[in-house]
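Hello again, I could really use a second opinion on something today. I've dropped the whole record in just underneath, so have a look.
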Amino acid sequence: MTDANARATTARALPGAASGRPRFGANYTPTRGWFHHWLDFDAGEVRADLESIAALGLDHVRVFPVWPVFQPHRTLIRPRAVEQLLCLADTAAECGLDVAVDGIQGHLSGFDFLPAWVRTWRRRNLFTDPEAVGGAESYLRTLAAALADRPNFLGMTVGNEVNQFSDEEHPDPDRVDAAGAAVWLDRMLAACEDAAPGRFHVHAADDKAWYRDGHPFTPGHAAGLGAATAVHSWVFNGTAQRYGPDHSATLHHAEYLVELAAAWSPEPGRPVWLQEVGAPRPHIPPAAAADFAEATVGNAATCADLCAVTWWCSHDVDRALADFAELEYDLGLLTVDREVKPAGRRLARLVGELRAHPPAPAPRTLAVAFDPGDPATAPRRSTGAPGGTAFDAWVRLAASGTRAALVRADRAADAAHLTARGIGEVVTPEQVMT
């Protein structure tokens, strides 16, 4: 068996948290044309990209069908586009890579990709309009069914941070409340499961779901729906700006989010997928990117519930493409010419070490309590956001070398819950800070 095939065979044993062997991969950003490559799909270029990812020792990619390209009309899902997605999946298999597929793109790197049948003259609410919901459901079902017989297909992610469409920050929001968001997520996940039973189907939100008071997509949704909890760790959210690029708050942010997800899980041991994490400049200076990558992934790897880390992203964005935010261009492990960057070399070495010698999860016998209010809506979830009291207390412990857990205040006296998570002592943020 080749090394690539060995990686893929091991990777399919999802989730990885129970085995103590998290999976490591990358979010695939094509080198030629970025995600617009679906318009001029070139199987040879895709193969070269995927071979360069596999050469780093990674075992999976997360890929992004662009919604209006695949479903330009509510009742038209283009067969040729689906065939190209299957070609990509089969090529990945030949490279020893498993594939997780996002639907409903949705939003990518500062650009919205929505089909004409939900905007302007056909304006429909993405989350509540029956025709819009039915169209999205049909799309996810079609992709999942087409991929269901591919051995290297891991599962669907409902969409890439589609929660950002629901809040006031968006210039044209699709309003929904927490109950409506749960109904929508349940229906989308059910479509994926019906079409591809038993696969690793999840949904993904950015960190507003965890940190922003009043946001309709909640920590309870993230931690309670789907096969795992997906977290996206981006230190340009104010963490690096507030604390600095080499502060413990920045280097432990991904670890913190994994532990925050564990604190919200309905049952201990639910797998957590660090689905996006990257080193954005200038918040992380280019000369520090390799150190940041090693520290961030190494810290996250101490978490007992971590099942996978998927770096954002595989390749840089070609600077011939205009209008991206500056930080989006240089997030890759490889250049647009498929040359490995320092962060790519460092991450490849770390992944090899973690695979060869999987570390035992760090005992987290001490937990910081946080009080988000009603668990159903988390009206005070910002207490756990960067700058919040629980976040600052947890970071202070991390800076002192203490690997701490987090626990919701309503569970802080639940002996069975604490015992199941190995927690022996609970402290308040005020106790830590004083």
Notes: The longest strand covers residues 153-160. The longest helix spans residues 130-147. DSSP finds 16 helices and 13 strands in the chain. Residues 47 and 91 are 6 Å apart (CA to CA).
